[in-house]
Amino acid sequence: MDALLVINAVFPTGQIVATRGVYDLACQNPDFARFIQKSLNRHVKGDWGDVDDEDKQTNDQALKQGNRLLSAYNDDRFPRNGNATIWIITEADRSATTILFPDEY
Question: Which pLDDT belongs to residue 3?
Answer without folding.
Answer: 75
